[in-house]
Amino acid sequence: MGKQENPELMYTDLLELERQLSCPTGEEGMVVAKIMNETNFNMSYSSIKHLSLTGDDFLLEIGHGNCGHLDKVFDFGGNDISYFGIEISETMKLEAEQMNQLRRINQSASFYVYDGRKIPFSADSFDKVMTVNTIYFWKNPKRFLLEISRVLKKDGRLVITFVEEQSMKNLPFVRERFNLFSKSKIRELISNTNWRLIEFIDQYEKVKSKTGELVERHFIITKLSNQK
Predict the structure, then answer these.
(1) What is the CATH number of domain 7-226?
(2) Which tens digits make up the pLDDT trace of 37-70?
């Protein structure tokens, strides 16, 4: 007779995976971050591509993970790009610094920990902002969009990339911490704000999920312009 799985243990494991996805910590967090970098690399690559980077841009990335995709920023924008990354996870900040030591030494990239609410930069600091797979965890999305608007220059571009709600809702680790989004929810979110929708870009791919199975994923690149 085959070994039966313990439903309570599986549930606990999935809750821990969800917690690590929202804020990776410790050794397990580094393992999860490596998996995230591999499975989300195309999402990050596509987001960078649609930022339309130029050589003197100041770029902020919110929730960079281990930042294994950083070289693509400079591939698209050139070596004069100034990259700044912020994370709620101290583990990910340290891992990103370790993986990108040369960029830190030449001062083209720097990494910071923040509280998930207040972005630690002055107004009008950035030309472009990007964030991939973080919007699900924003405590107050409308307020946080105002905070992004504050640090982004007028007419600056924001790219928010997320897995579409229907692709996410049946994944086993999506439980208590995820707030799922669709195009209509994004439109509602930015209504009566400084943000102008430029376009939605739909992308489809097959990836191995965080729990090991092969799934089709529909993700959306949302391009916004800051009209403050």
Answers:
(1) 3.40.50.150
(2) 778 899 999 999 999 999 899 999 999 999 999 9
